[in-house]
Amino acid sequence: MIGTGEILSARSWLFAPGDSERKMEKAAAGAADIAIFDLEDAVAEEGKPRARTMVSDFLRSRPEDARARLWVRINPLDGPHALADLAAVVPARPGGVMLPKARSRQDVEVLDHYLSALEVSAGVEQGTTKVIVLVTETAEGMFTTGTYKGAPRLAAMTWGAEDLADAVGASENRDADGSYGFTYELARSLCLLGASAAGVAAVDTIQGDFRDLKGLRDRAEKVRRDGFRGMLAIHPAQVDVINEAFTPTEEELAAAQEIVDLFAAHPGAGTIAHRGAMLDRPHLARARALLASGGRA
């Protein structure tokens, strides 16, 4: 349960347009840890009312225990659609809601009030619907990524580069070599640090080129080393790569267990020599975290 110190374990978060029953079906039936039915960017303005109904009907068609991994991205709170989105989907009991273009913790608190009222009205246990927040899609949001500690319902934080580029008036968000520019790497770091401060999972943003699976694997492995717990996906082909990259290998688990066993054998030691290096308590903490992520706590 979120809020008890346990971090949500979800490696892959796959978007599916909320106005396509075929794509929602494929996402729900696939290997993604979480499928996100999108009512925001993937749906044209005139199609939003129909998409709300489609997402609600789709959720209701699923067994209740299967809905925990079916989430919905609503529209931004400061726009005209968010309340209608929530009123349509909360009674259908999605596992969670993605809040885009969050400006600060205050947006999560407002969302919590809306969710609580709708849950009570629908006979849903209050607090059931979790939240993942997109924290860097606005210039304002960049300055508040450290404010989310203790925010109600918060399960994860992620970031975005495309809307941020629009917000600051940039013509491009990547350098000549294809890597993100400084501002966007800063956004990634602020998301990671904010999630760590809040005690929730940090989830890396999408890779737009869904055909470049090698590049996806390289990036997923890197951000996992950096501390991210999962990654957003825009195409089913990306899911298996992401799941594998965020799953510890047997070699990693064995090495982590060796460190834990060394410290267990020397309970009073602050540092231990091991394989030509000195290990201290942060090494032990990281080893324990890796074992927990592999189900071997």
UniProtKB/TrEMBL annotation:
InterPro entries reported for this sequence: Aldolase/citrate-lyase_domain, Citrate_lyase_beta/mcl1/mcl2, Pyrv/PenolPyrv_kinase-like_dom, Pyrv_kinase-like_dom_sf
Cofactor: Mg(2+)
Domain HpcH/HpaI aldolase/citrate lyase, residue spans: 11-236
Keywords from the UniProt entry: Lyase, Magnesium, Metal-binding
The species this protein was found in: Actinocorallia aurantiaca
Protein name listed in UniProt: CoA ester lyase
Alphabetized GO MF terms: lyase activity
